[in-house]
Amino acid sequence: MPEPTADHRLCPTRASGAHTLIAHWIAPGACLTRQRANYHKCPTCQYLGLPAEAVVPLPVEAPREELPVSATPVRRARSKKKKPVEPV
Ligand code: SF4
Questions:
Q1: Is the pTM of the predicted complex or chain greater than 0.85?
Q2: I want to staple 46 with a disulfide (CB 3.0 to 4.6 A). Which of 13, 26, 33, 86 is the partner?
């Protein structure tokens, strides 16, 4: 991922520095326009109130935890329907 510069910034960021699920690169002018228009992501963004030349570093990616591998096979679901009784 490219680093943010004075020409483009990641939108949105989080005040805590955490990752956002969806973000895209925008120009600082677009950022300032969105702030003036009360874009709903701005109140929790690090760029809120900063000048156009401001650069906020990318969030540090936390190491991913390895998912445990299950050695037990998944059991098939069983129907709770009663089987019809066969006539004798
Ligand atoms: S201040 Fe608003 S427009 Fe600018 S980067 Fe943050 S969320 Fe996007």
A1: no
A2: 13
State which amino acid sits at residue 7: D
CA distance 58 to 74: 40
49 torsion bin: left (phi>0), alpha (psi -120 to 50), beta (else): left
H helix or E strand, kind and range, residue 29:
helix 28-36
The reply to whether ligand 1 has any atom less than 6 angstroms from the CB of 28 is no
Contact 82, 51 (CB under 8 A): no
More confident call, 50 vs 64: 50
Ligand 1 centroid–CA 7 distance in Å is: 14
What are the CA-CA distances from residue 85 to residues 61, 79, 80, 88 (Å)? Answer: 60, 16, 15, 9
